[in-house]
Specification:
4-stranded antiparallel sheet, 7-stranded mixed sheet, alpha/beta, about 15% strand
Amino acid sequence: MLCYIGGSESSEHFYVINEACSMFAHTNPLHLDVFQSVVRFEAEVVAMTAALLGSKEKASGGQICGNMTSGGTESILLAVKSSRDYMKSKKGITKPEMIIPESGHSAYDKAAQYFNIKLWRVPVNKDFQADVKAIRRYINKNTILIVGSSPGFPHGIIDPIEELGQLASSFGICFHVDLCLGGFVLPFARELGYDIPPYDFSVKGVTSISVDVHKYGLAPKGTSIVLYRNHEIRKNQFVAVTEWSGGLYVSPTIAGSRPGSLIAGAWAAMMSLGKEGYLEHTKAVMEGSKRLQKGVEEIPELFIIGRPDMTIIAFGSKVLDIFEVNDIMSSKGWHLNALQRPNSIHICVTLQHVPIVDDFIRDLKESVETVKQNPGPISGGLAPIYGAAGKMPDRGTVQELLVDYMDGTC
């Protein structure tokens, strides 16, 4: 939450959330008969989010439902697991496969490893969106799920959700939309007049959505939501053990016990801000993003990756080593994400950045100029990870680096 909240009202917002969390720090929604208030908080957070992303009138095929989770990764894991089991019951698929664009989040790789699903990563098109025709070529009798993002984490670009929905519907497979970043921006940006393409349950074929409340929802860290088009799909998320000597055990999420304090904090954040609060914040971050994008575009050595739809601006360079630029920006106190294919860096604009966009552009111009005057291989910063060639090493090398880091040897 520290990355997303900002402005003069942040102290009051923190106070409200902290009070709610402390009041329910002892609660655990696993015991829903005991902690009924927290169970109601969760239901209301899910219902309010579902209303933002397609009411039951819009989403034909049932009433939207879901659960709160610990973050976007768990929401994605649960959606994948539910899709796998739903497609097994529906089509008898026992060797499941899923297809995602290469811009899709790494949580799908984790899900594939955890749930024994073959994963196909498909290159994006020239606009850095999911390539619908390419994805179609990978669909076969074992396909359970395709994925789109609104927007994708690397470049902030919304995939063609309507076309992907049509594709999923025509093959009778599941379609998950990753709205972890955009879920609490896109509905309000559209209401503010921004040209936002379809992205939610109003699109035919969308079967599940993940959305983080702890990002632009400004809730405490550790709060996300997974939503399903109907109960028929969601029931595959649950684990029910009936023969245990300890009695009946039913758990809706990966975690058994869950912190009721975070659920209460998310509920308090949403109730405190309300629609007007989210509209105000969305206007600020969208305007700040456009200003920042314009500033980057005015630096001739840099180029924007694709056409950003929201608050992530990714940029690279054809004449400079962008990772050297990133190292210098880091020395100035800016912490940006390094990307590959193509080599680039991005910033996710939040309320904290809105008043200092001009500072960012000034430092970026200075960093670019420094690299121009001092060309050469990377000597620090990202060098241990990317190397002088600016390429990501293989998985084994990364694992060794991480082990060394955890051991304190680098």
